[in-house]
Amino acid sequence: MTWNIAPELISLVILGIIWIYSRKGSHLPSLKNRMFQGCLMVTFCAMLSNVLSTLMIYNTDTVPLLLTWIVTQIYFILTPLMGMAYFLYTVSVIYADSPSLKKIIWTGITPGCLYAVMVLLNPVTRNIFDLTEANGYTRGHLIFVTYLIFYAYCVASIIVTLCNHKKIEKEIYRILAAFPLLAVLVIIIQQIYSDIILSGSAATCALLIIYLHLQNKQISMDYLTNLPNRQELLNMLHLLTNKYPVRGFTLLVVSLRDFRQVNNACGQQSGDAFLKSVGHFLSTIGPAGNVYRFSGDEFALLFTQENSDELDSCVSAIRERMALPWQINDYRFLIRAVMGIIRSADCDGSIENTIGGIEYAVSQAKSGKYGRVCYCDKEMLEKRERKHKVIRILKDKLADKSFEMYYQPIYSIETGKFQYAESLMRINDTPIGPIYPSEFIPVAEETGLIIEITYVILDKVCKFINRLRDLGIQIDSIHVNFSAIQFSQQDLSKKVLEIIESNNTPMPAVKIEFTESTLAENPTVVAEFAEEMKSYGIMMGLDDFGTGYSNIATVINIPFGTLKLDRSLVQASIKNPTSALAVKNLVRAFKDLNMKVVAEGVETEEQRQLVEEFGVDQIQGFYYSKPLSETEMAEFMRNH
């Protein structure tokens, strides 16, 4: 009997290429990756033994019969067990985190082990094949078991995949369902054309599909730096937390600051070269095989052992290197970096807590609150968790518009009456207790929730103004604070006017305030908005003047109705005559520009007398009243 082994030789070469490239891919020691390498090894050995056995059978006169027996025996053991290897790979993908994984694996290998025993007994039973000098190679009456075992494992792979299709991603489901089916079809063709050996081709086709879609190094590697990517880091963390929970780890993320400037100055190509250089440097000083590209200009170093000396040495090396200039082509520049560090012991081993904590640590390092290296400990994780709770509360309050509004009266020195007020949002009733503006305002601004919150506040203020008027209580205007991010909205003017008009509130009864930081960030946008609002009778107010963000030239070019002196100016003037003189002259200058000057944060009689000496028009502060609820404010206005 003769066989055509050309397809097997070609498939052997292709399989060798896949094996070589797969070794450059994911180094994650997961069961899935180990199983894939096992599939490659079993398939390669089966194909090689097949080719060698065929050649030896052709040359029984020159090759020792015993050697031919051994190689052929190996071929018959390994070939059907390729199906078992594919089955185990499928199981390792689907049941990776299942407690029943070991039981499924032991159940799955049992038929293969029994078949292997059957082949090992073949020299005695001759049930699978026989090999003699006189008759050469002949098939045994149980040789069909070889194909039966292979088919059984392929069918088992398909059944397991179909039964778990809801648990796995669609793409993975298609691959796991397709590759054993393809292998079965090729083997069926071989049985039809028995003189062509295609078992290796079937296996190679299946492994090629798996490699391209599930094991390709491009899935786990960053194309630019050739480092493992973020997903590979997540997979590694998942492996550590689930398979080795006792083994501690430390994650260090290095974030480059102002990297955009490198791209702007040198071009993207040089910027990419810089990232490669940084990645290469970190690979040389970081834990071997555990340096990852975390995001665009961030790199992660994973220490799989709790070794403080190694971590400290690495942090020091990064600091020293980042203090030196980088040379990329003709460009030479310095670039800063900040680092966030988190230990598994502090985040309870949760991947969500680990990634969330490290990103929070990096953001805090960028803020400068903790220096350029920020350790995310349990206290910081608690702060992060509280921040998330605040965000959820803000979203809930925004959804049902249940913010509480308070108002602080503003005293007019000229009339001796309280003709104005500032609106203040409060969140008192929450599962975590009262949340103060110093906490929820920055969170609202960071998340962008402040935009819709401000519109809700404006609507509530309009309704309160209408309520006061219905009660016969006269109030000239109520101040509403706008955040800097509010001015990023293209339809801001339209939205503001719609809210006021829908409530039938007089336009001049609303005064829009914003801080100096807003003016410094968006002077042109603010000026255009102020001019448009003025045309409708809505005046603008500048809050917290004196905190150092704006200059006089910018202020005088915007039609402000009022300007509030920050409480820090009042407090400084009490202690320092020079400061008092400067503030007094500022007040005079602004009044000459037809602005009303408000002194805020006035709490004592001494401060009240001082600001009146300055010549301010209005006074706001605890000296006259704390912020009041709507009912309290209405009563206060009625009595005053």
Automatic annotation (TrEMBL):
<dbReference type="InterPro" id="IPR000160">
    <property type="entry name" value="GGDEF_dom"/>
</dbReference>
<dbReference type="InterPro" id="IPR029787">
    <property type="entry name" value="Nucleotide_cyclase"/>
</dbReference>
<dbReference type="InterPro" id="IPR043128">
    <property type="entry name" value="Rev_trsase/Diguanyl_cyclase"/>
</dbReference>
<feature type="domain" description="GGDEF">
    <location>
        <begin position="247"/>
        <end position="378"/>
    </location>
</feature>
<keyword id="KW-1133">Transmembrane helix</keyword>
<dbReference type="InterPro" id="IPR001633">
    <property type="entry name" value="EAL_dom"/>
</dbReference>
<dbReference type="InterPro" id="IPR050706">
    <property type="entry name" value="Cyclic-di-GMP_PDE-like"/>
</dbReference>
<protein>
    <submittedName>
        <fullName>Diguanylate cyclase (GGDEF)-like protein</fullName>
    </submittedName>
</protein>
<dbReference type="Pfam" id="PF00563">
    <property type="entry name" value="EAL"/>
</dbReference>
<feature type="domain" description="EAL">
    <location>
        <begin position="387"/>
        <end position="640"/>
    </location>
</feature>
<keyword id="KW-0472">Membrane</keyword>
<feature type="transmembrane region" description="Helical">
    <location>
        <begin position="141"/>
        <end position="160"/>
    </location>
</feature>
<feature type="transmembrane region" description="Helical">
    <location>
        <begin position="70"/>
        <end position="92"/>
    </location>
</feature>
<feature type="transmembrane region" description="Helical">
    <location>
        <begin position="6"/>
        <end position="23"/>
    </location>
</feature>
<keyword id="KW-0812">Transmembrane</keyword>
<dbReference type="GO" id="GO:0071111">
    <property type="term" value="F:cyclic-guanylate-specific phosphodiesterase activity"/>
</dbReference>
<dbReference type="Pfam" id="PF00990">
    <property type="entry name" value="GGDEF"/>
</dbReference>
<feature type="transmembrane region" description="Helical">
    <location>
        <begin position="172"/>
        <end position="190"/>
    </location>
</feature>
<dbReference type="InterPro" id="IPR035919">
    <property type="entry name" value="EAL_sf"/>
</dbReference>
<feature type="transmembrane region" description="Helical">
    <location>
        <begin position="104"/>
        <end position="121"/>
    </location>
</feature>
<feature type="transmembrane region" description="Helical">
    <location>
        <begin position="35"/>
        <end position="58"/>
    </location>
</feature>
